[in-house]
Amino acid sequence: MKLCLLCENETEIESWLPFFGAKAPHLCPKCLERLVKITGPSCSLCSRPMKETGMCSDCERWGERAFVSNQSIYLYNEAMQSLIARFKYRGDYVLASIFADDVRQMALAASCDLICAVPLPPTRLAERRFNQSEALIESAGLAHVSLISRLESDKQSKKSRLERVNAPQTFYPIGDAQGKSVLVIDDIYTTGATIRLVAKALMEAGASSVKSITIARSGS
């Protein structure tokens, strides 16, 4: 018997290995069923669930700044929110392996030349002692390169929606991506502000195009 890392109830997790693969050693079947993949109509640029496939109002407002296409895998529901919070803020690095198969498959489908993690501000990295973006990439068995770095900045979780959208640029290029397509992998897509700032820095590093994969898409 093991404890499910989400509900913390005892469960015979091993018996579910043939059905749920890499997710099974860490979550019970009930909690796995609470993780909902985005399968219906969604925004063609950011994966926001919609009634019909097209471009959402957020991406329309970004206008010319919407040069990034994002694919999110799961809805950011209560279960996913708890799981990512435990992963990021409580340091349960092993939870990155839950998403390994999903991330690997989508990264291969994206077919980009390079993969890049989203860097953390230095103080945040010191607090957490790991970068969740790098953890997701490495758990999927993918190689990544350091193309950008990041200045100190306030926590995104403490900012209002308006503050996020109008956030100043804190990313800057440190590597060469000349003529290369770059895939960015991160945990959550909320307003799209962070990934667009990342993409801008990558373009300054010479990237020909930028795509992103995120584990969850917040509907807010």
Provide the fold topology.
Layout: E1 2-3, E2 10-11, H1 17-20, H2 29-33, H3 57-62, E3 69-75, H4 78-89, H5 100-110, E4 114-117, H6 122-128, H7 132-139, E5 148-150, H8 161-165, E6 171-173, E7 181-189, H9 193-204, E8 209-217
Parallel strand pairs: 3-8, 4-7, 7-8
Antiparallel strand pairs: 1-2, 5-6
Secondary structure tally, helices: 9
Q: How many structurally independent domains?
A: 2
Most strands sheet:
4 strands, parallel
- Distance between termini? 38 Å
CATH architecture identity of the largest domain: 3-Layer(aba) Sandwich
| Alpha-beta content class | alpha/beta
Beta-strand percentage? Answer: 15-25%
Strand order of the largest sheet: 3-8-7-4
Structure description:
The protein folds into two domains: 1-33, no CATH class; 40-217, Rossmann fold (3-Layer(aba) Sandwich). It is built from nine helices and eight strands. The chain has 220 residues and is of the alpha/beta class. The mean pLDDT is 87. The protein has a four-stranded parallel sheet. It has a two-stranded antiparallel sheet with strand order 1-2. It has helices at residues 17-20, 29-33, 57-62, 78-89, 100-110, 122-128, 132-139, 161-165, 193-204, and strands at residues 2-3, 10-11, 69-75, 114-117, 148-150, 171-173, 181-189, 209-217. The protein is globular. Residues 172-218 form the Phosphoribosyltransferase domain.
